[in-house]
Structures are given as C-alpha cells and as structure tokens.
Records
---
Amino acid sequence: MTQQKTDWVEPYQKQIEGKLSFAAQILGKKDAHYKHLRGLYQDAIAPLDEFEAISWLDFDYF
C-alpha cells in the first residue's frame, strides 16, 4: 500500500520532522525522550494495514 499525502499535510509533516531533527541535535539520537517522540511520529505516519471501506449506513447512531 502506498502512503497518500495531501497538500495540506506536507507543511505539518515538515514542521514535525524539523522539530524532531532539532530535538535529535540537542538531546542526541540515543535519548529516551527523543526515541519516544520519534516512535510516536513513526506510528502516526504509518499506513493502516487492515483498512476496509465501511458504509456510513452501517454505523449505529442510537
């Protein structure tokens, strides 16, 4: 599965990657806080493995 990007996401992605890069420079890449933040970022941008389409009619509203 390819990772889809939209134009409005790219500036946020670059900002976050820049902040992570700054944190790596200050804290070091072996720092626990940096590793934790980097892991959270990697989890957030990872594509979903088991994504399936669901009709909005299948949701229980009440």
---
Amino acid sequence: MKEQFEEKEKDLLHTKKKEIIQKIVSLLRDQDSELYYSPTIEIAELVFQHINSSDFPQKELEIVGELTRDDIQILMSLNS
C-alpha cells in the first residue's frame, strides 16, 4: 500500500514538472515565434535559464529547481 502511494506521488511530481516546463516553453514561444524551429537542446537551455532567473516563482522552483538541462530536454521529449 505504501509503495503504491509513493509511486502515485512520484508520478504526480513528474506530471507537475512536465506541466511547468510546457508552460515555460509556451511563454518563450509567445516571445519568439521562431522558437518552434529551434533544436530541443537550445529550448532546454532557455527553459533552464528561465527557471534559474531571479523572478521565477518559488513554489514552481521547489518542483523544477533541481533539474539539469538534460533533465529538461528529456521531459520535453516525453511531452510530445
């Protein structure tokens, strides 16, 4: 029972991370329509910079703050 709860909690956290990253990508795309044509690694870098900016919301930072550029790129690919 405890294992099922932990697995569901892990899945929920993973889903939240993907949602936050997708929200950032949408925001960046609104700022630059050419972003659609950029390689995923470049977009992941922009997302990473956005997360690590001083004005990023603390609540979301607690969820995605530990992600590396590679983590972000992987989560973006899972979002497709």
---
Amino acid sequence: MSKNDLNILSLNVNNFGGNQIKKITKDWNSPDQVLSRLIRAIDIWQYIMKSKAQIILLEEFENNSKVGKCFIKLLKSSGFTIVRVC
C-alpha cells in the first residue's frame, strides 16, 4: 500500500447485537444486554484500530443508545472525527 492509498472500512454493526435477531420484546437497555453489546463494541473498536482505515462507515449504528454513545467517545478519543449521515 502506498502513501496515496485510502483505506475505507465498512461494517454493519447491528447495534452491537452480534448475530442476534432483535425481538420486539427484548429489552436492549437491560444491564445484561448493555454489557454484552459493550463487549462487542470493544471487539469492533479493536478490529477498526488494527485495520488502520482512514474512513469508517458504520451501518445499523444506533448513536443514541448507551453503547453507541460510549462507542462514539471511544472513537473520538482514538482520533476519529464523527460525521453523522442519515
């Protein structure tokens, strides 16, 4: 890879729910679910950092959830600029 290359990483993070299908009755903000999703978020952050991508596109990312807000802080502290696109 040359210095002129641009690395773009696109990930569908499924709101950090892993391979689980969201059920309407599931409480995604229960302490157990938040902890589980937070662990997945850290794994995804580590993957992003190893990728050395300059641009990251996160699909199915709920930026108003507890985990989403923590993930945004983690990315900002790692030097990323957040651009929200609807």
---
Amino acid sequence: MTIPRWLAAVTLATGLSLALPAHANKAVMQPPDTLLRGLDLDRATVLDLQRAMNRGRLTSPNV
C-alpha cells in the first residue's frame, strides 16, 4: 500500500511551514572593525579617502 502523493505533499508542506528559521550567533558573525584613524574603510568612498589624505589622516607609502 503506497501513500497518496497529496498526503506526502501536505505532510512536507506542513513540516516546512512549522520549521523554525536558523538564527546565527551575532557575536560570532560580526566582522572585525575596519577602522583606520577614524575612517571606516568598508563604507568610505573614494572622495572620503581623498579628503582624509588631504587632511593628513592617511598617507601613501609612495609619497
């Protein structure tokens, strides 16, 4: 005797709808800070970097 396809589909849909979402541990998932002399390197634009270099907060090793 085989299980009807609709019963298998209903069982699968019910199981998936009742499943709890996986939550990641926020302390583990946070990336390290990428701050350099008060400048967030992840969010800084080219203009932000140029302004910081003009103000002397950043320097280039080639200068």
